[in-house]
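Please go through the sequence line and C-alpha cell line underneath and see whether the fold suits the sequence. See right below:
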Amino acid sequence: MSLPGTASGACLCGAVRFTASFPSLFCAHCHCSMCRRNHGAGYVTWFAVPPAQLVIESGREELARYPSSAHGSRSFCRRCGSSLFCESSQHPERIDIALGAMLEPIDREPQLHMHFDSRVAWVAVADDLPRLGGKTGLEPIPGAKGSVSGEGG
C-alpha cells in the first residue's frame, strides 16, 4: 500500500517497481501509431508527472530505453517487455507513465483522446471525452464529440 498522494506500479514480472506522487499533470488515451505498436493495443492510456515525482523503487537495472523518435524514448522491462514510460525532449517537464502498469488508482480519470484522427477503425469509442488530433495530436477535430466546433461523430 502506498502513502497518501502516491500510487505504486510495476511491470508484468514485478522486476521494475515504482511510485508516482500526485498531483498528476494529465491522463489521456493516445491513439497514435507509435503507441499502438509499442503496446500492441488499439490505444494506450498515459498519465504524466514531473520527473521528480517518479521514484524507481526497484529494478532500475532491468529498465531498457528505446529511442523511438528523434526527440523521444520509451522505457520497458528487459525481462518481461512491459512498456512503462515515455519521455520527450520536447516536454522535459514530464514523464508519461502507462496507466495499465499501475497497481493502485491514480488521482484522476482519463480526460481526453489524443491523436484521435490516427485511430484504428476496429476500436469503438463510446465515451464523451474530447477527441483531439491534427499535427500535434491535441488540436480540436471539427465535428468530433467533445470538440469546440460541434458534437458530431
